[in-house]
From TrEMBL, chain A:
It comes from Desulfacinum infernum. GO terms for cellular component: membrane protein complex; plasma membrane. One of its GO terms (molecular function) is ATP binding. This is ABC transporter ATP-binding protein. Keywords: ATP-binding, Nucleotide-binding, Transport. Residues 4-232 form the ABC transporter domain. SUPFAM superfamilies: P-loop containing nucleoside triphosphate hydrolases (SSF52540). InterPro entries: AAA+_ATPase (IPR003593), ABC_transporter-like_ATP-bd (IPR003439), ABC_transporter-like_CS (IPR017871), ABC_transpr_LolD-like (IPR015854), MacB-like_ATP-bd (IPR017911), P-loop_NTPase (IPR027417).
């Protein structure tokens, strides 16, 4: 069974009298354990696609099944729980809470889940150590470099052991060296822990690392440039 | 938070001042006007006493019996007869009307020394003395009208209880201050013996009772009523509030002022909290989006902002207690003087420290902070996650 399945998904936005389609009749299937890149020019619908896959936005039309569940039937609270338990997010601008330390930022998803503070801190610390941030657990984001902040964001995305990590341009704000290490890290986690990664990017190093590349143009999926036929 | 602290402080300092005012008014009503906590009249005196004084005066035997019953109650610290009268006072050339009261001089001292807030030297001259019945006190305004100085002599004329005219010589033993301007040129205080001689009676029109505490008033009234009834004494009892309508009126006025101040301050506090929380929501839209993306439910966002608001109220209240304590301490140390409207000499201004006010207004403040956070918190919780994440 596919982990994520889109059938004829369309997403439209209203701009006054005008209706703009960000996605048009998209069909897509992503299996567990895949390392999928979404590529395309600006305005092609990459972020909209990731938002729908990540359950923070809804299709205007079409069907989206996540882990076998028709997401249209889910309440807002149920989607929240699904995001919290089964999804992880990595943002282009890291989106760390500035007043919290690295450790506290990573603890957030576990605390939302209702885990006791001690357990949450222990698991968050382990993730940060795994990502080489042992020395920075008590630092606030403004004391960390861009690469370190993105590592903290990755730790936060992975701390709940999600099925899928959704990453929107995860290396866009990083220098070349740091971007390379982040790409390697994501790939490593994908291989070692079997976590599915779906990300949008313009970064060639990430594109080179993907199992499967999905190309978006004007809200439509074009043929994959590389992969095993996942593109429908 | 400063707005909360200073608003809370202002309300409580004003509340402390109001409590002080109430106490001052109460003291004035019970001790200043010599009415005591309870006053006993012969049944019907208040309605018909003026028309037929003889019938509604307490006779010496009745006075003795009433005082004996009163003294059986341990809460009664003083039971003393008084006699009201009116007439003319003349210096031989000019005359004017007066309103007089015959009192036991020893009891008068006992009543006045029980004052705490308004204890000031209210007269010039020497104290009244039961052994010197013609030594009287006149208000300064009355003395001015008939040109009387201390130790000057004058003649007072009044109707006896039988309706005859009687005149007696008096010596001005003391000049007194009367706070009420309407009475400033009319008051005369005399030893009870003098009043009895002037009115040609051995009775009195009332018995004034002083109790240990204000709070005992109604209990003693009930017990005394039963005891007097059992003794077959036709007496009616009035408490100090019933005999002091000005106390009730002034208290209502201060209650209203306090209410307005309370409302104004709390409106300011609520607006401040709404503003603070709205700013917090605006500044954290992206963070709210992030938390929602990570799985925080809408009610979780509500709880977060509610807690923040609660904390704002709690800490603001604690700071406000500091402001209140500082203000209270400054007034206690500096002892600024002021002249209340019912007095003619300045007395030390006080602000009472009222824990009940502090606790109640703290609860109200915290409640209002929570209430004020509802609208901004709901706005935060309803944020579209995608738009919030894209907010710059």
């Amino acid at each position: 069974m596919a982990l994520m399945e889109l059938r004829s998904v369309t997403k439209e936005y209203s701009l006054g009298q005008l209706t703009v389609a960000a996605l048009r009749e998209v069909d897509l299937t992503i299996d567990a354990g895949e390392f999928v890149g979404i590529w395309g020019p600006s305005g092609s619908g990459k972020t909209t696609l990731l938002n729908i896959l990540g359950l923070i936005d809804e299709p205007t039309r079409g069907l989206y099944r996540f882990d076998g569940v028709d997401t249209a039937q889910l309440s807002d609270d149920a989607k929240c729980e699904m995001r919290n338990h089964r999804l992880g997010f990595i943002f282009q601008h890291f989106n760390l809470i500035p007043v919290l330390s690295a450790l506290e930022n990573v603890m957030i998803p576990l605390q939302i889940m209702g885990r006791p503070a001690g357990e949450a801190a222990q698991r968050a610390r382990e993730r940060l150590e795994q990502l080489g941030l042992t020395a920075f657990v008590h630092q606030r984001p403004d004391k960390l470099s861009g690469g370190q902040q993105q590592r903290v964001a990755i730790a936060r995305a992975l701390v709940t052991h999600p099925l899928v990590v959704i990453a929107d341009e995860p290396t866009a704000n990083l220098d070349s060296q740091t971007a390379k290490s982040i790409v390697g890290l994501m790939r490593l986690l994908n291989r070692e822990e079997g976590t599915t990664f779906v990300f949008s990017t313009h970064d060639q190093r990430l594109l080179d690392a993907v199992d499967r590349l999905i190309r978006l143009e004007d809200g439509c999926i074009r043929l994959g440039e590389r992969g095993d036929g996942g593109v429908v | 938070m400063l707005a909360i602290a200073f608003g809370y402080g202002a309300v409580n300092l004003f509340g402390g001042f109001t409590a002080y005012m109430y106490e001052g008014l109460r003291e004035g009503a019970v001790y200043g006007t010599m009415r005591g906590h309870l006053t006993l009249f012969k049944e019907g005196f208040l309605e018909k006493g003026q028309l037929d004084p003889t019938a509604y005066l307490l006779s010496p035997e009745e006075l003795q019996a009433v005082e004996a019953v009163c003294r059986c109650l341990p809460q009664v610290v003083l039971a003393t007869p008084q006699m009201g009268f009116t007439g003319l006072i003349s210096n031989g050339k000019v005359s004017t009307i007066f309103i007089g009261r015959g009192v036991m001089a020893s009891a008068l001292r006992e009543i006045w020394t029980r004052r705490f807030l308004t204890r000031v030297q209210e007269f010039d001259g020497r104290p009244l003395d039961d052994a010197v019945p013609d030594g009287v006190a006149v208000s300064r305004g009355l003395a001015r009208l008939v040109d009387l100085k201390l130790d000057a002599t004058a003649v007072v004329l009044a109707n006896t209880v039988d309706g005859l005219v009687n005149a007696l010589d008096v010596t001005v033993a003391q000049m007194i201050d009367v706070g009420a301007s309407a009475l400033e040129d009319k008051v005369l205080l005399a030893p009870l013996g003098f009043a009895r001689s002037l009115l040609d009676t051995q009775g009195a029109d009332r018995v004034v009772l002083l109790l240990e505490r204000y709070e005992q008033t109604e209990t003693v009234r009930a017990r005394l009523g039963a005891a007097l009834k059992q003794a077959g004494l036709p007496v009616e009892i009035r408490n100090w509030i019933e005999l002091s309508p000005e106390y009730t009126r002034t208290k209502k006025m201060f209650d209203m002022i306090f209410f307005f101040v309370f409302v104004i301050v709390f409106v300011i506090v609520v607006m401040s909290v709404v503003n603070t929380m709205s700013m917090a929501v605006m500044e954290r839209i992206r963070e709210i989006g992030t938390l929602r993306a990570l799985g925080l439910k809408r009610r979780g966002v509500l709880v977060l902002f509610g807690l923040e608001s609660l904390l704002l109220g709690l800490v603001g209240g604690v700071l406000g207690m500091g402001v209140t304590t500082l203000g209270w301490f400054w007034v206690k140390v500096a002892e600024p003087m002021w002249t209340p409207p019912t007095m003619v000499r300045p007395i030390p201004l006080k602000i009472f420290f009222v824990p009940e006010y502090l606790g109640f207004s703290w609860l109200v403040m915290v409640g209002l902070c929570l209430l004020a956070s509802v609208v901004p918190a709901r706005r935060a919780a309803r944020q579209n996650v995608v738009e919030a994440l894209g907010h710059v």
